[in-house]
Amino acid sequence: LLKPKIVILGAGYAGLMTLTRLQKTISVNEAEIVLVNKHDYHYETTWLHHAAAGTLHHDRVRFNINNLIDRNKVKFIQGTVVEINTDKNKVILENDELSYDYLVIALGGESETFGIKGLKENSFAIVSVNAARKIRNHIEYQFATYHTEGEKSDDKLTIVVGGAGFTGMEFLGEITDRIPKLCRDYDIEENQVKIICVEAADSPLAGFDSDLVKYAMAYLEGRGVQFKLGTRIKECKQGAVIVQSGEEEEEIKAKTIIWSAGVRGNSVIDRSGFEANKGRVIVQPDLRAPGKDNVFIIGDCSIVVNKTDNSHYPPTAQIAMQQGVTCAANLTKLIRKKSDLEAFVPNIRGSVCSLGENDAIGIVYGKKVVGSRALFMKKVIDNRALYMMGGASLVFKKGKLNLFS
Ligand code: FAD
User: Fold this and answer.
1) In 3-state terms, what secondary structure has residue 214?
2) Predicted TM-score (pTM) of this structure
3) Fewer CB in a 10 Å sphere around the end CB: N or C, the chain?
């Protein structure tokens, strides 16, 4: 008897969570499961700011996918998805084509530059292990060549971060931890380094508790970060950004420009004819794509609507993982020919924003936390994600085990 074939695209939080749940519930005879991912490793997207700043080696933020897979049940294909043809139930990879009976699209997000001139070409975005290690090396190279004959220029030591959302703030925390070490290694005075954060809104971390935001800003300013609020990046050139605040324009020369103010869903969504807003699809309550009863879309490629006020939940790892659980349960029901699919209900436990190794802010179960309590919670959240995907052994291998320091 021919088994139904489930294809999962993407081994991020959403995809791996679906997979690890599915391989527990589905028996070998019930379905064939195929996982497709660009790399043979999973990376913790929420830890990439460490790797980009160089405060954690990139091998600490990734692990081999094959170690998590039950090979009796799951086939892993390393490949890049180009397009999906939902009429023909086919996935087109760069070098291959796959058919499916059930599809899970969990390809994550991409950087969005909103058409700002030169930004895509001349800035970095913290979006993958490859991108993170390029940023780390680029920054280190600027320091390493500062004293090189004929190359000395202060813009080498200027880092501009565009966007003070979670990613921008967490990166600022890490880079301020890293700067003293870089300065020591390359005989540079710390006060020669400039870190400028440009944010279009009047405050960092839009919508977050204002006391916590003030705390975070004061902490980062104390470590040398200069915030330019109410200021937007108008253009980006090689080695400079042009920013605008009101009527005033200014050019800031900086050899390192990090863009962290925009994320969108995966461009595969746009190429595959889904009705989407910047690569994100408003999914049905059971997480299936509208009008496509064998296609689930989860994680950063999906939009979850908050029923209480019709707003959209911001895409997070927290939601992606919870969606993975519901998606696996619903796939199991479909395979077993049951029609009572579960509706996805997000359970937002809170969020914590790290500010480097020594401080953090957050709201956990409705309570404000800062300092060592917030740092402790952040590590618990990070370890829990590992535990959910790979159990205790993964936590021991890759977890943040120094919980109290
Ligand atoms: P991802 O985890 O990004 O996984 C997508 C996977 O698909 C990747 O493995 C990728 O390689 C693969 N892929 C992509 N394109 C293709 C293709 N064409 N073909 C094949 N494979 C492909 N959220 C929180 O909840 N808390 C936080 O503290 C937090 N901090 C963050 C810090 C940073 C620096 C960043 C960048 C994000 C942070 N987020 C945080 C957001 C969170 O990381 C995302 O919402 C989450 O990763 C989404 O999960 P996902 O499974 O949809 O995508």
Assistant:
1) helix
2) 0.96
3) N
